[in-house]
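Milestone M4 deliverable, item 7.
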Amino acid sequence: MQTFEVISVNISEKKGTIKKPVPEVQLTDIGIPGDAHSGLWHRQVSMLAEESIQKFSKEANREIQYGEFAENISTKGMELFKTAPMDRFLSDDNNIELMVTQIGKKCHGDNCSIFREVGNCVMPKEGIFVQVVKGGTIRSGIQFRYEPRVLKIKIITLSDRASQGVYEDRSGPAIEKTTSTFLTERNRHFQFNRIVIPDDPALLIKEINNAVEANTDLIFTTGGTGIGPRDFTPDVVKSMLDKEITGIMELIRVKYGMKKPHALISRSIAGTIDKTLIYTLPGSQRAVHEYLTEILPTLEHSLYMLHGMDFHG
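Output delivered:
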């Protein structure tokens, strides 16, 4: 379990200005009342680790004071920028709970007084922003523990022959490998549940329902998306959706169908069931790669929207 300690709390009344340390602050549903970044939005409170501050101090060849980079909370013990949105920080000292909403930010260069005074800024790469989930009084010395948001992912391969052991399932492992690489590069924590079932609509419905009941974040099916007599996956999934996401699959069919007309025959669909995203992919490794190339970049924003999180602004 990773933990870190608050070493300074800092506030300012204007954005883009250096914040000044204060003995303590109150965290509420708008962040820190009176601070420039408070409000009903996703960047309520900014945080920066001493590990990042010290690294920049060496580059700048001078000591950096807490709050100089406009961070509300200065910490030590953990590199905060290696977290990801939806991760949480919990304090057992006073029951405070913070949710990570953004890593880094756009640097405004000479338009920012911090940049003019310090000469550079570490916030665009290593500063983070959080929303207040549970508020309270915060001061130096308070400890937080890091609770990553573990994405639960289920992969369902539909194939009579693979389920009978006639041949090895390759598309399911391909989905896991590609998705794992993508999420790891974004500091995501995740766990997979992979299963191979025969081409049986009742079994597919059962596996999807089990996954949704287990609060699975993401379901991939592979196989059964064509027009053959045993291709029923899109039909079953569509009947279970709360909302269909049409754009992704339309793009994939057009993009790859321009060069390979048989890609246009795929009936793959995407959508949501409760708080679960579901995508039906074809059964070949090549198709899996093509589909995930387009799907994965939309994944994080889709999760935020599905959970009612407005990370704009």
